[in-house]
Design a protein that fits this description.
By secondary structure, this protein is an alpha/beta fold. The chain has a single domain (about 5-270), classed as TIM Barrel, CATH 3.20.20.70. It has 9 helices and 14 strands. Strands 1-2-5-6-9-10-11-12 form an 8-stranded parallel barrel, surrounded by 7 helices. The protein has a two-stranded antiparallel ribbon with strand order 3-4. Strands 7-8 form a two-stranded antiparallel sheet. Helix 1 packs parallel to helix 8 (about 240-255). The longest helix is centred in the first third of the chain and has 14 residues, at about 30-40. The termini are far apart.
Length: about 280
């Protein structure tokens, strides 16, 4: 028997546009409302990117702070900011979201081809991000796109630059990264220490099949428009909440309970940042 499942919702991302789906939230109010609706649908955590006034991806700390405040005014969902930014963002810029004082932040532990571009994460920057998170009491979510990134994270734990237990998000299906398959998932999971927690984020049409595998193997799942805009073949999801609802259905079908945000904080060993 496995414990409650943590559902994370990746709301916006840095690549998606309204040309691809008219349901993409862009403004601070829209993103906050989408986060709150996803939480009400069953998401214990949201993975947060933001957009500027023109709808372009940005790491501006003032916009992150605005969105975080709007979400926290309405619900206790765990807020995880992205430090990945968009391809080409400077390392300094990518650290700005930490100023919003989130519960968690993403930490990608290696560089990787990302389509026709390169997502750069050299070791000194990874160490810098990890140290900044530790100083602010922000728990990292280690983003793993291939096996080397997992090995780096484990090395950092051994060296003391990352604190155990880690929460690891296995990101499968990005062009340049590991393909979304059961065999690849098994390889990664076999290398994760038992005391760690892990989730799966799969791209496009693989989102729900891989989520179903993660649920059955005792892991957690990430869904959301950042990774997949379809509810079913040819049918656009009208909201992030619809994608969360599908994940809830899959979990219940596998007899997995849905973790509340409070339960997720206990599982992930993070404290509440909400006022008393």
């Amino acid at each position: 028997m496995f414990g409650p499942i943590i559902i994370t919702c990746a709301l916006v991302g840095a690549e998606l546009t309204r040309d691809q789906t008219p349901y993409l939230p862009l403004s601070p109010d829209e993103i906050a409302a989408s986060a709150i609706a996803a939480h009400q649908a069953g998401a214990a955590m949201v993975h947060l990117h933001v957009r500027d006034e023109s709808g372009r991806p940005t790491c501006r700390q003032d916009i992150f702070q605005e969105v975080v405040q709007k979400i926290r005014a309405k619900c206790d969902v765990i807020i995880q900011v992205s430090t990945g930014g968009a391809i080409g963002d400077s390392f300094e810029t990518r650290m700005e979201p930490l100023a919003a004082e989130p519960d968690m932040a993403s930490l990608t532990t290696g560089s990787i081809n990302f389509g026709d571009e390169v997502f750069l994460n050299p070791r000194p920057f990874i160490e810098q991000l990890a140290a900044a998170m530790a100083a602010k009491g922000i728990k990292p979510e280690v983003e793993v796109f291939d096996t080397a990134m997992l090995e780096t994270a484990l090395q950092m734990v051994g060296q003391g630059s990352l604190g155990a237990p880690l929460h690891i998000d296995l990101v499968l299906g990005v062009p340049g990264g590991l393909a979304p398959s059961e065999s690849n998932l098994e390889i990664l999971v076999s290398r994760i220490p038992q005391e760690f927690t892990w989730s799966v984020a799969a791209m496009g049409r693989h989102q729900f099949p891989m989520a179903q595998l993660a649920i059955k193997k005792g892991g957690h799942v990430r869904v959301g428009l950042e990774d997949n805009i379809y509810l079913s073949k040819g049918v656009l999801a009208r909201s992030n909440a619809e994608l969360v609802e599908r994940a809830v259905q899959l979990a219940k079908a596998a007899n997995r309970n849905i973790a509340s945000s409070a339960q997720a904080r206990e599982i992930l060993k993070i404290s509440s940042t909400l006022p008393d």
